[in-house]
Structures are given as structure tokens and as C-alpha cells.
Amino acid sequence: MIASVLPTYNRAPLSFVSGEGAWLTEADGSRYLDLGAGIAVNVLGHANPELVAALTAQAGKLWHVSNLYQIAEQQRLADMLVEATFADTVFFTNSGTEAAELAIKMARKYWYEKGEPNRTDIITFEGSFHGRSTGAIAASGAEKMVKGFGPLMPGFVHLPWGDMEAVKAAITPDTAAILIEPVQGEGGIRPMPDADLKALRALCDETSVLLILDEVQCGMGRTGRLFAHEWAGITPDIMMVAKGIGGGFPLGAVLATENAASGMVAGTHGSTYGGNPLACAVGARVMEIVAEPEFLAEVNRKAALLRQRLEGLVAAHPDVLEGVRGQGLMLGLKCKVAPAEMVKAGYAEHVLTVPAADNVLRLLPPLNITDDEITEAVARLDRAATRLA
């Protein structure tokens, strides 16, 4: 008999009833150090008092009115994002998947309105992950994502990761945009080199192709800058944001320049819940905290500490681990065993991690994790690796 909850997840035998900061607690009182943060979502930890206060204050006033009306909290958050980024305009969604759908629509509508409706192709990359809608899985193109769900949305050109010559060769008069994650998450914590991001921006400028960045996982302070592309000193035309922007409350967004968004007028897109008062009240508080230079400086300091400790961990377990990669507090341990085995060994040591492709174990802790918690986390990972050795 099928379960009452559709069985599409291989869930761990864990069930948490409360959380505080970087810790989660089961009903029996067992505490787990969370290095997954809800897959890079809980950027300020669990039950953060500042976010609880923002949510509670808004919940006592107004939850939902729909986008038929002006929403003050939405306007405030949009203004904050525009002020802090390249963007001129913002559309709010409930998730990264919804942001991907709009980014695709926006790029194609841009060219349609420019009188070049043939320009619908979007270049994407091996190892990418942009969500699980029919459009997003077509963008990824990976067999594990698309098998059994055809026919797929056409118009995506899939290229090898990091092959800049292939990108140049793939651009044709039918190319609308290039869509890429500055740091692949699901693909195995693979940062795109700054030089390659600069080259992509230059290529897009040269050919008028739009550059879409997917910063759903690597954005909102995760790499030590508010958004990962800032390290390369470039800006996109369109950017997808979600996960960390809501600090645990469902929220996503598409940020765009006025030019890139020029085809999107009244009636071309919409969302019932997107940008509702509850989500935007929390998102605004997240922005107030995470966008502060002092906060981001602390992320970088703690990232350096964690990386140093992880390098020592790899050196101590050469039969289990082979390297550290990533940026900021978006780090990956390249494993010589299946990452799922490290995850399972971590459960025994009460530390939570997330597997990824390319034999990588993802470490995505809350951005406000403490130095002592970093020390404790590495100690627990050390014991987990010892179990596997």
C-alpha cells in the first residue's frame, strides 16, 4: 500500500521536533549538529529569534492579500534587493524552481519583443540543477532528472562544465541566454572560476545573449559575498534567488535589469502566494542581517577556519577523503567512499550533512555557526570518517 505521503524521498530515520541555531533536537532529546541547514536554507540557523520576531509581528497583522493589491512588505524587500545588487526590478516567487521558470520565460520574451522570436535556445551545463519542474529538468538534461518525464521542453543546449570553447561554438543566431550556477550545488560543489565567469559575461556582451545566473544555493551570503558572482566582479542580466533569502520561510525571487525584464508587462506572469506579506517580512529581516559587511566578513573568517580544519581532516583520513572544495560556507568533501556512507556515519555521530554528485559531501552550515560549533562539527566528522575507515 502506498504511503499517505508520496514516497519520492529516501528519508533518514530521523524526525526533529525543535531546533535552535545550528542544532536540531529529536523527541527523545537527542541533539544533532546541522551542517546542512535545510539544504542551504536556514542561513541564520533554526528558530532564529530575529526572524521569529519578524514573522510573529507580521502574522498578527496580515498574512495574504494576493498580488491584486499593493503589498508594502514586498515593496520594501524589492527596494532592498535593488539597492544591494545589479538589479532594477524584482519578481517574488515561493521557490527556486518557480524562479527558474520565470527566468526562462523572461529571456525568451525579451527576444520575442525585440523582433527575434527565433532566439529561444538557452545554453546550460552538465551537472546543473535548476529545480524539478518540467522546464527546469529540461534545462538540466541529466538522465536521472528527465527519465520517464518526456516529452521535454525543447530549446536547451547542454554543454560540458567548464568548456569555454564549447560555449563559444554553441552560440548561434537562435541563442537567447546562457544559464549557469556560479557554484554548482547538487553537481558537487563546483565553483566556476572567476576568469570563466568574466569570459561568459564578455561573450554575452559581444553576442547580446542574456546571462542568467542561478544563485538559489550559492547566494545570500553563502560564499562570503551577498551573491557569488560578486567575487568575479561581473553582473548578470537575470538572477534566480531562493533558499537562504527566506531564512527557512518559503521565498524566491528573480532579479533583473530593466533591459532584460522589458518584455514582462502586466499579464505576462503571476503568482498567487509569491511575495506575500509573511514571506517578505522575514526576507527583509534576513537581508538586513546578511547584507551587512560585518556579517559577511565573519562568514569569510569562519569559512577559512572551517576549511583549514577540513584540510586537516582529509589529511587524517586519506583512505576515506581526498580533498576540500568550494567557497565560503559552501564547502564539499570529495570522498573515496559513497557520500551516502559518510552521511550515514554522520548520523551515528549526530552530525548532519548532505550528499551531492561527483562523490562529494556537502557542508552548508548556518552562516552564523560559531567557532566552537565548527570545532565540534569537524570532531564529529572525524569520528564518522574513522567509522568508515
Main sheet?
7 strands, mixed
Helix content: 25-40%
Number of domains: 2
Q: At CATH's second level, what is the architecture of the largest domain?
A: 3-Layer(aba) Sandwich
Q: Label the structural class.
A: alpha/beta
CATH fold type of the largest domain: Aspartate Aminotransferase, domain 2
CATH superfamily of the largest domain: Type I PLP-dependent aspartate aminotransferase-like (Major domain)
The number of strands is: 17
Q: Give the strand order of the largest sheet, numbering strands 1, 2, ... along the chain.
A: 4-12-11-10-7-5-6
How many whole angstroms does the radius of gyration measure? 21 Å
SSE string, helices as H and strands as E:
EEEHHHEHEHHEHEEEHEEEHHEEHEEEH
- Classify the beta-strand content into a percent band: 15-25%
Q: Helix count?
A: 12
Query: Uncertain segments of ≥5 residues (pLDDT<50)?
Result: none
Report on this model:
The chain is α/β, with parallel strands linked by helices and 389 residues long. The chain folds into 2 domains: 115 residues, Aspartate Aminotransferase, domain 1 (Alpha-Beta Complex); 241 residues, Aspartate Aminotransferase, domain 2 (3-Layer(aba) Sandwich). Helices cover 37% and strands 19% of the residues. It is built from 12 helices and 17 strands. The strands form 4 sheets. The protein has a 7-stranded mixed β-sheet with strand order 4-12-11-10-7-5-6, with helices on both faces. Strand 13 and strand 14 form a beta hairpin. Helix 3 runs parallel beside helix 9 and helix 10 packs parallel to helix 12. The two termini are 39 Å apart. 49% of the residues are buried. The model has no long low-confidence stretch (mean pLDDT 97).
